[in-house]
Specification:
Elements (H helix, E strand, L loop, with lengths): L20 E6 L11 E6 L6 E4 L1 E2 L7 E4 L3 H8 L6 H14 L10 H30 L3 E5 L9 H7 L3 H10 L4 H5 L11 H15 L4 E6 L7 E5 L2 E5 L12 E12 L2 E4 L5 E4 L2 E13 L6 E10 L7 H5 L3 H4 L1 H7 L12 H30 L8 H4 E6 L6 H12 L4 H11 E4 L10 E3 H7 L1 H22 L4 H11 L2 E2 L5 H4 L13 E6 L2 E6 L6 E3 L5 E3 L9 E2 L2 E5 L9 E3 H8 L3 E3 L2 H11 L1 H6 L4 E3 L6 H7 L2 H11 L21 H26 L8 E6 L8 H16 L3 H7 L3 E6 L7 H18 L8 E6 L4 H7 L5 E4 L11 H7 L3 E4 L5 H8 L4 E3 L7 H9 L7 H11 L9 H5 L15 H20 L1 H13 L6 H13 L4 E2 L2
Helix pairs in contact: 2-3, 2-5, 7-36, 11-13, 13-14, 13-16, 15-16, 16-17, 23-24, 24-35, 25-27, 25-32, 25-34
Family: Belongs to the glycogen phosphorylase family.
Subcellular location: Plastid, Amyloplast; Plastid, Chloroplast
GO molecular function: glycogen phosphorylase activity; pyridoxal phosphate binding
Length: about 1000
């Protein structure tokens, strides 16, 4: 990567001394069949001045920057990469020979993939370097997106599509004896994420690059990802993901970009009065860069992933030579395991420590990198108060929360700023996206654990919390003390902590006098005795926190001939750090990801904060990139859209999709539309046969639910509905079945977290139901149930275009947004769902008549749970019938009492049907009957499908990113010249 010898100014509009590095593509000549692709760096000192004019995509005035490079050099650096098929074939042959990862004697598919990807990477690097250098020169404000997940999917097809080279690469590979689709299928999905959170982050990077916004992504380079899912007779089994076993052709290790990371140690006060974090465990984070190209633009931004290691000096050579091999490698092993697994199990203290280490590594390495870039661009004119004018940090959920105390630590301890200065800068720089209303996902960390691992950060968090307490008291001090206490309990960052001494006096209550060391309270004929010197009868649980235990038998005493007992010591709740509260306090903006979700965030999740700082709260409805999710994954449909709208502009301006509405009844369009859908279903049929062994017919309705397995997403409601359908079919004659039901292929996909027992039971149940139904000769092709193993982005790209009906059936008020619902709608799939997350907005956009709605609404949920707790709920007979059918052993000998038991009872953990499967079941199966009715009328169904695509324009991530850029980050798009 080239560096330029200049000093950038705040407005990026002065003359620069020199721009020495040019990237040139040499020998890419189609007429020379033996030509090779070489990238060289050349310096040009001829001093001919050239003015670069920045094309601003916004309405802001254009920025200008002058640069003394030659006309030829500038054109070389910033020209589009547009070779022909012969040049591409030459480049692929070059990489197959000179950057080999496979034996030289054969040119088989794996080798063809790597050579092809490396040839594409060459062009990305040209644009990447030009983009990077230009951003350095311009010194404009830049956004940095921090996320624990980036679920990218395969990169080859997306990259050549964005570069508009799909046809050229297809022809080149054909000339080399391969098919582009087969070559692209060799690429494993990058195991850097699990669900919607990571896929959203990747869509955002695509849109940022496409729209020419200056931005980078930061994440961790997981060696084994989450896990690879196998489906066996016992349900889900997990094995380590192998996506890096053959290497990745896209990543570029930056051995010159690494930063120190510290854990443990202690904090001391130096002679200068400053606080110093010393000692402990030291590692380093090394950068791996992945170029992210925009569509029809030279802008290529960066995803920087951190990998962890220790310096060679930390290898204990003496211990190794003494035979203590494990001890010698201990430091390296401790460092490397930080980036082994996405979301390591946290049921143990060690698992919790590892997760916290991951989060801190992401935050610390990224912020050090961001600050180094700010200082380099500022040269010797560093003005820290301008940091928020150059840097916007977005925290994708609570995982990067430690950005807040880490930025404070760097500014105060390392850069010498005052607390007031650092806090002002931090609050103006950082913003937070909330992705959930589930309490377990609003992270809390043990204070004791955090104090050991990050002692300096705990001090800073305590100071932030104290400042917050004073602000709350200042705002609400006129309230009665009980209400003020409620506010403090809900809003404090530190949970179960005493109030700071400066405000504790407000809540001081008179104490009753106590004689000696014993307080005696007479109740009936018993006396409870509490002694101040009572032995601490607590013990550590598996999280290292203190829990109370009952007194030993025989602890009762006889006092004054009365029966007395020694009370149990009061249960002391563990001290916790509430990360979501810290995000809200330390960020200048808090956004939800769908309209209904953002309202819940304001009215319920963070209501007290919303009352205090209403200006912080925003909505940014999620979106997905139309490039990957229509243009590249569904070529048949894309061609139809282009034909009937008369332009390909819809790929960048999805508003043009609405033009399809005027043709929704056109018979010719409907015929083409159905043909495109069927061709996609035929591909899916082959895939399902290969992956599961089950044969299905393409003329059946493809009913698909693919997403993370979780009780609130209610895969259990779906499979219970299928069981009901199956039972009814078995009670009918063949003629009755055919008259009543349309053929369906019910497809599930998604991973259950390895330690989520109930979710894994659901996977097992789905596969057992499928095994029974799929082998029932009476049912035949009328109903099939298939669980697709190891669901990922590549599987989604095949199944979503083939879908007829998609299920988005979460308990209302529990899904923040969802993004798969948007992908399905874009591809002309009709949805059955609740009024939850983005379903609400999708239904508004596509039309109520083109969405199958059922179930309770969000405002009803609390009352329905209360009704259940009071024993007033009466389950539907059909629901009880399904439970009994399952218990009868119809789907095998496995005992499903625990699974079904979660839907029974009126209260208790894991009971009482918290997610209201039983409540919504009648509405769900009745709605499914309407689905059957609609599908029989193919003209009506096709029209509904067309109108779903036509109404999906709002759900482009381009729209979402424009809103983030304008309302939160305050950045402008800047096109390379």
């Amino acid at each position: 990567m080239a560096t330029s010898s200049y000093c950038a100014t705040a407005n990026g509009a002065e003359l620069y001394k020199h721009y020495a590095s040019n990237s040139r593509l040499i020998g890419f000549n189609s007429r020379n069949r033996s030509s090779k692709l070489f990238l060289t760096r050349t310096s040009d000192f001829r001093g001919v001045k050239r003015c670069f004019h920045v094309k601003s995509v916004s309405s802001e005035p254009k920025q200008n920057v002058q640069d003394p490079v030659t006309e030829e050099g500038a054109e070389s650096v910033l020209s589009s990469f547009a070779p022909d098929a012969a040049s591409i074939a030459s480049s692929i042959r070059y990489h197959a020979e000179f950057t080999p990862l496979f034996s030289p004697e054969r040119f088989e598919l794996p080798k063809a993939f790597f050579a092809t990807a490396q040839s594409v990477r060459d062009s990305l690097l040209i644009n990447w370097n030009a983009t990077y250098d230009f951003y350095e020169k311009m010194n404009m404000k830049q956004a940095y997106y921090l996320s624990m997940e980036f679920l990218q999917g395969r990169a080859l097809s997306n990259a050549i599509g964005n570069l508009e080279l799909t046809g050229a690469y297809a022809e080149a590979l054909k000339n080399l004896g391969h098919n582009l689709e087969n070559v692209a299928s060799q690429e494993p999905d990058a195991a850097l994420g699990n669900g919607g959170l990571g896929r959203l982050a990747s869509c955002f990077l695509d849109s940022l690059a496409t729209l020419n916004y200056p931005a980078w992504g930061y994440g961790l380079r997981y060696k084994y990802g989450l896990f690879k899912q196998h489906i066996t007779k016992d349900g889900q089994e997990e094995v380590a993901e192998d996506w890096l076993e053959l290497g990745s052709p896209w990543e570029i290790v930056r051995n010159d970009v690494s930063y120190p990371i510290k854990f443990y140690g202690k904090v001391t006060t130096g002679s200068d009065g400053k606080r110093y974090w010393i000692g402990g465990e030291d590692i380093k984070a090394v950068a791996y860069d992945v170029p992210i190209p925009g569509y029809k633009t030279k802008t290529t931004i960066n995803l920087r992933l951190w990998s962890t290691q220790v310096p060679s000096a930390d290898f204990d050579l003496s211990a190794f030579n003494s035979g203590e091999h494990t001890k010698a490698c201990e430091a390296q092993a401790n460092a490397e395991k930080i980036c082994y697994i996405l979301y390591p199990g946290d049921g143990s203290v060690e698992g919790k420590i590892l997760r916290l280490k991951q989060q801190y590594t992401l935050c610390s390495a990224s912020l050090q990198d961001i600050i180094a870039r700010f200082e380099r661009r500022s040269c010797d004119r560093i003005k820290w108060e301008e940091f928020p004018e150059k840097v916007a940090v977005q925290m994708n959920d609570t995982h990067p929360t430690l950005c807040i105390p880490e930025l404070m630590r760097i500014l105060i301890d390392l850069k010498g700023l005052s607390w007031k200065e650092a806090w002002n800068i931090t609050k103006r720089t950082v913003a937070y996206t909330n992705h959930t209303v589930l309490p377990e996902a609003l992270e809390k960390w043990s204070y004791e654990l955090m104090e050991k691992l990050l002692p300096r950060h705990v001090e800073i968090i305590q100071m932030i919390d104290e400042e917050l307490v004073h602000e709350i008291v200042s705002k609400y001090g006129s309230l009665d003390l009980d209400k003020l206490e409620e506010k403090l309990a809900a809003m404090r960052i530190l949970e179960n902590f005493d109030l700071p001494s400066s405000v504790a006096d407000l809540f001081t209550k008179p104490e009753r006098p106590v004689d000696d060391d014993t307080e005696t309270v007479e109740v009936s004929d018993k006396v409870e005795v509490v002694t101040n010197d009572e032995e601490d009868k607590s013990e550590e649980n598996d999280t290292g926190e203190k829990t109370s235990v009952k007194p030993e038998p025989g602890a009762e005493k006889d006092i004054d001939k009365k029966n007395t007992v020694v009370s149990e010591p009061a249960v002391i709740p563990p001290k916790m750090v509430r990360m979501a509260n810290l995000c809200v306090v330390g960020g200048h903006a808090v956004n939800g990801v769908a309209e209904i979700h953002s309202e819940i965030v304001k009215e319920e999740v963070f209501n007290e904060f919303y009352e205090l700082w209403p200006e912080k709260f925003q909505n940014k409805t999620n979106g997905v990139t139309p490039r990957r999710w229509i243009r590249f994954c569904n070529p048949p449909l894309s061609s139809i859209i282009t034909k009937w709208t008369g332009t390909e502009d819809w790929v960048l301006n999805t508003e043009k999709l609405a033009e399809l509405q005027q043709f929704a009844d056109n018979e010719n369009l409907q015929i083409e539309w159905r043909e495109a859908k069927r061709s996609n279903k035929i591909k899916a049929v082959s895939f399902l046969k290969e992956k599961t062994g089950y044969s299905v017919i393409p003329d059946a309705m493809f009913d698909i639910q693919v997403k993370r397995i979780h009780e609130y997403k209610r895969q259990l409601l779906n499979i219970f509905g299928i069981v009901y359908r199956y039972k009814r079919m078995k009670e009918m004659t063949a003629a009755e079945r055919k008259a009543k039901y349309v053929p369906r292929v019910c497809i599930f996909g998604g991973k259950a977290f390895a330690t989520y027992v109930q979710a894994k039971r659901i996977v097992k149940f789905i596969t057992d139901v499928g095994a029974t139904i799929n082998h029932d000769p009476e049912i035949g092709d009328l109903l099939k149930v298939i669980f697709v193993p190891d669901y990922n982005v590549s599987v989604a790209e095949l199944l979503i275009p083939a879908s007829d009906l998609s299920e988005h059936i979460s308990t209302a008020g529990m899904e923040a947004s969802g993004t798969s619902n948007m992908k399905f709608a874009m591809n002309g799939c009709i949805q059955i769902g609740t009024l939850d997350g983005a379903n609400v907005e999708i239904r508004e956009e596509v039309g109520e008549e083109n969405f199958f709605l059922f179930g309770a609404q969000a405002h009803e949920i609390a009352g329905l749970r209360k009704e259940r707790a009071e024993g007033k709920f009466v389950p539907d007979e059909r629901f009880e019938e399904v439970k009994e059918f399952v218990r009868s052993g119809a789907f095998g000998s496995y005992n499903y009492d625990d699974l079904i038991g979660s839907l029974e009872g009126d209260e208790g953990f894991g009971r009482a049907d918290y997610f209201l499967v039983g409540k919504d079941f009648p509405s769900y199966i009745e709605c499914q009957e309407k689905v059957d009715e609609a599908y029989r009328d193919q003209r009506r169904w096709t029209k509904m499908s067309i109108l779903n695509t036509a109404g999906s324009s709002k759900f482009s991530s381009d729209r979402t990113i424009r809103e983030y850029a304008k309302d939160i980050w305050n950045i402008e798009p800047v096109k390379l010249p």
